[in-house]
Amino acid sequence: GEDVEQSLFLSVREGDSSVINCTYTDSSSTYLYWYKQEPGAGLQLLTYIFSNMDMKQDQRLTVLLNKKDKHLSLRIADTQTGDSAIYFCAVSGGYNKLIFGAGTRLAVHP
Amino acid sequence: DARVTQTPRDKVTEMGQEVTMRCQPILGHNTVFWYRQTMMQGLELLAYFRNRAPLDDSGMPKDRFSAEMPDATLATLKIQPSEPRDSAVYFCASGLASGVEQFFGPGTRLTVL
User: Tell me, what's the pLDDT at B39?
Assistant: First the structure.
């Protein structure tokens, strides 16, 4: 079945850029997503990219998609302490199903 | 501000008891998903409904779990009997079948002692 992998932890200094990486196995995924989860909360959709795009920018967020390598990344510019959370990569399966990675815990320190 | 609501937010119960979790999808959304989140397994899809009909419940242990949508405004996930390994956070999400996004509820944290 579909597999989505992410590194588990990332630590950055406040003001720096954060880059969270994700790899997936199913090249037929139509949409690829980034969700954010803060402690004790549900998942919040940050952004998504259609599989025929290679880049999408939304304010401080930049998503890059390399279909050949099946690699997705999320760059957060000027990372703030409020960005500390778990970030999930997800890809669409059949019937709008989402297949999630294990999540990357982002820690932002002064 | 439309959002998915889930009740209860927290549930502590003893092994063998029945547990029912409820979800109210965003008004007008015709797809509903149930996910389970644990430290070991991460986020797993349990069941998926479209227009109240179950399309996929292959991720759900059939012997003890059941999911239904009595009407378009209510989805339920029932565990009977509950076991300690069912302890997890259960999320409901809703969306449009024609749409791209899934909107998640705040989750129900279930602890089975």
Answer: 87
d(C-alpha B49, C-alpha B80), whole Å: 21
pLDDT bracket for residue A1 (50, 70, 90): low
Contact A95 B56 (CB under 8 A): yes
Q: Which of B6, B107, B43, B33 is nearest to A39 (CA)?
A: B107
Is residue B99 predicted with pLDDT exceeding 90?
Answer: no
Picking from B100, B103, B109 by the largest number of A CB atoms within 10 A of its own CB, the best residue to mutate is B100
CA distance B78 to B68: 9
Under 8 Å between Cβ of B64 and B52: no
Residues near B98 by Cβ (< 8 Å), separated by ≥ 6? none
The 10 Å Cβ neighbour count of residue A101 is 26
A30 near A96, Cβ under 8 Å?
no
Average pLDDT, chain B: 93
